[in-house]
C-alpha cells in the first residue's frame, strides 16, 4: 500500500514529513539528516542529489544545480538579476525571460527547465521516503510560498506530472505553519470564547513571508499575510561574499572573480558558516580560506558592526514588510499574543531585533522552525488528525483542481 507525504520544497533545503500512526514523522535521508539540499548534479553520466551533489560542486561546478526553485514559473526581472549573475551554472534566457539551465550530461548538451530539475528532485525525495518507510510513495502534498502566482503553482504541478507523482494538494507555507502550531502548541485557548493572535515570520533563503492567524479552541482564522519574494538569508550571504571577494581581489590584484570559477564557489561556501557564527556570537568573526587556486590564501575578519551597517537596507525592508503586515491586520500591537519565527534565515540578531521592535513582542521559536511547513503539509493527508479535528482544516488547503 502506498502512502502520501508532505514536502516543504525550500530554495536551499527540502524536508519530508509523513503521517505515522497518530503523529507526524520527519524523514531522515541516508546521512541521517531531516534536511535534504535542493540540488541536482550531473557527473560521469549519472544524476546525483542532495548532499552528494553539493559535496562534488567544487570539482563539478557548472553541472551542479542548486537554488533552481527560485526560477520556478517566473520571469527574470531586475529583482532577480543579482541572483542570476551569482549562479555558478550557465543560464539560457532566450525564451522571453524564462530561465533554462544549461547542463552537459553524458557528453551531450541539455537545456533543462526548472520544473524538470524539480521533477528529478521530487523523485529523489519520494525515493528517500520510500526507503525510510518501506512503503511505496507516489503521492505528495507540496508547500508553496503564499505569494506564488497561478503560473508558479502550475509549474509545480507540471514537475509532479513529469516525475509521475500525484500531487494531492498545494499548501501555502504560512497555512502549513499555522496548522502545525494549532495542533502541537500548548498555548491554544481551551475554549472558543478566547482568541490567541499569533504572528508567524518565515524567513527563507530567498524570500520572507509574514502572516497573522487567530486561534480559538476549535478554529483557525487567517487575519492577513504579507511577503517579499526577494528578501531572505541569501541576501545576507551575498554581503559576506562581497566582502571576501573584494578583499581577495585587492590582495591578489585581481579585477574580478568569475562567479563560475572555483575561487567564487569556494569563497561562497564559507558564507553560511560565517553567517551562523555572526548569529550565535556577538564577537567579530575571523575567516581563513585556504585551498584557493595558485596557493592563494585569504585571512580576514567579518566585523559585526560592518556587517550590520552593510545590512541596513535589507533590515529596513524587513521593517517595512512587518509594518505592512501589522497595518493589514487592523490590530494594535497590544492585541497580539505571540510572534513565532520559522525558516532557515531568521536567526540573525538584527532580524529578531527589527521583528520585536515592530510587533512589540519577544520572538519565539516554540515550533520546529525547519520542519513545521512539511509537518503542516503531512497533516492534510493524516486521517487520524482530520478525524480528530474535523473538516474545518480542509478549507485551508488548495486542492489541485483549484490551482
TrEMBL record:
Belongs to the heat shock protein 70 family. Transmembrane segments: none annotated. PANTHER family: HSC70CB, ISOFORM G, HSC70CB, ISOFORM G-RELATED. This is Hsp70 family protein. Keywords: ATP-binding, Nucleotide-binding. InterPro entries: ATPase_NBD (IPR043129), Hsp_70_fam (IPR013126). The keyword Aminoacyl-tRNA synthetase does not apply. The keyword ATP-binding applies. It holds the Pfam family HSP70. It comes from the Eukaryota. GO terms for cellular component: cytosol; nucleus. One of its GO terms (molecular function) is ATP-dependent protein folding chaperone.
